[in-house]
Amino acid sequence: MAKRWINDLTTQDVTPEHAFLNRRQILAGMGAGAIAGFGMPAMAETLEPNSFEDITNYCNYYEFGTGKDDPARNAHTLTTSPWSVQIDGLVDNPGDYALTDILDKMTIEERIYRFRCVEAWSMVVPWNGFELADLLTMAGIKPEAKYVAFETVLRPDEMPGTRFPVLDWPYVEGLRLDEAMHPLTLMATGLYGKPLPNQNGAPLRLVVPWKYGFKSIKSVVRITLTDSQPPTSWNKANAGEYGFYSNVNPTVDHPRWSQATERPLGGGLFAGKVPTRMFNGYDEVASLYDGMDLARNF
């Protein structure tokens, strides 16, 4: 069931890159109505997407290097077609699904989302993709499933960064099932109406806009439904700094820097920091964490 989250955009907004680049104001997100099934009131907001160049040249994708410009320089080596996704675990229809077959069954939407990196910088990205909930429903979710685990492709011959033990490869991530099924949770296949560039996680990546960016795993090749909390790469690397939830939270600092503010990219040399918002401004997800100690479950 696509389109449960309403973008306040017209078909004119979905088009070519120059249309975005020439526009100074684009209304995004929650302006048109409520979020179906969640009953949350709508709020109008004006977002200005970063340029295609900003988004594609300032990336974290350590499989292609740890510098911000390394992915743009090195990720062309990744073969993204053909592509398949293994869906297994607690599902009714496990198997290897060709991406082309998946896309035939999905409704591609445009979502302009805020993106907040754990490193305290941010940008606004016009994604194209489909709701993860639709893919999981297609696979059939067994009642025992409580979590969803994700895995990035691992091809050392094509991914030069994986020749170094920066992390325990392959990169893995996870969500609670209710987080995965939320209408905001997207599987992105493009940005600015173009196919997703390799450095941004082609051909298929997760986007969870209320969490720090590293939760939005790139180049997904496996999705596993499970009844136990799955391991995640940064949590395995340093559990004291990177929690399983990693919700954007200005009241819980990273041990080595504040999360109270962020530096929007593309604002020029004299652009200052701005306050970070709880859940990156996506208040409609707050009910997912009712009763939780978000300082302890960071």
TrEMBL record:
Which residues are in the Oxidoreductase molybdopterin-binding domain? 79-234
Q: Name one Pfam family in it.
A: Oxidored_molyb
| Role, per record | Part of the MsrPQ system that repairs oxidized periplasmic proteins containing methionine sulfoxide residues (Met-O), using respiratory chain electrons. Thus protects these proteins from oxidative-stress damage caused by reactive species of oxygen and chlorine generated by the host defense mechanisms. MsrPQ is essential for the maintenance of envelope integrity under bleach stress, rescuing a wide series of structurally unrelated periplasmic proteins from methionine oxidation.
What does the cofactor field's note say? Binds 1 Mo-molybdopterin (Mo-MPT) cofactor per subunit.
Q: Which UniProt keywords apply?
A: Metal-binding, Molybdenum, Oxidoreductase, Signal
Q: Which GO terms describe its molecular function?
A: oxidoreductase activity
- Write down the species: Tropicibacter oceani
Q: EC no.?
A: 1.8.5.-
How is this protein named in the record?
Protein-methionine-sulfoxide reductase catalytic subunit MsrP
Task: Describe the reaction catalysed, as an equation.
Answer: L-methionyl-[protein] + a quinone + H2O = L-methionyl-(S)-S-oxide-[protein] + a quinol; L-methionyl-[protein] + a quinone + H2O = L-methionyl-(R)-S-oxide-[protein] + a quinol
Q: Which NCBIfam families does this chain map to?
A: PRK05363.1 (NF003767)
